[in-house]
Q: What sequence folds into this?
């Protein structure tokens, strides 16, 4: 699988190229299907979903899935707390 350059550097709060975050999210989902423990793909998927209008529920679900697989995934836990303060304890 080859990720496009835009896919590799999605960061929360950084303006994205219009129309690029959803295709990137699809690529990250495929990467996670192949390798569920791929932390960078997990966080990039979350970032892509957070940046896509209407996708916050999916982003939160992805955070929670990552934390179920790896409860000590501090980056995911911290980002979830910043992105959705009311979700952090779930």
A:
């Amino acid at each position: 699988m080859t990720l496009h350059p835009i896919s590799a550097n999605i960061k929360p709060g950084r303006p994205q190229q219009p129309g690029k975050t959803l295709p990137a999210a699809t690529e990250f989902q495929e990467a996670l299907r192949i390798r569920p423990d791929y932390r960078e793909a997990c966080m990039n998927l979350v970032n892509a979903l957070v940046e896509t209008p209407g996708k916050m529920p999916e982003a939160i679900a992805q955070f929670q899935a990552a934390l179920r697989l790896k409860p000590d995934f501090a980056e995911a836990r911290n980002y979830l707390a910043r992105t959705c303060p009311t979700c952090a304890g779930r």
About this structure: Residues 19-83 form a domain with the Serine Threonine Protein Phosphatase 5, Tetratricopeptide repeat fold (CATH 1.25.40.10). The helical segments are 5-8, 21-34, 39-50, 56-69, 74-83. Residues 21-34 form the longest helix (14 residues). The radius of gyration is 12 Å.
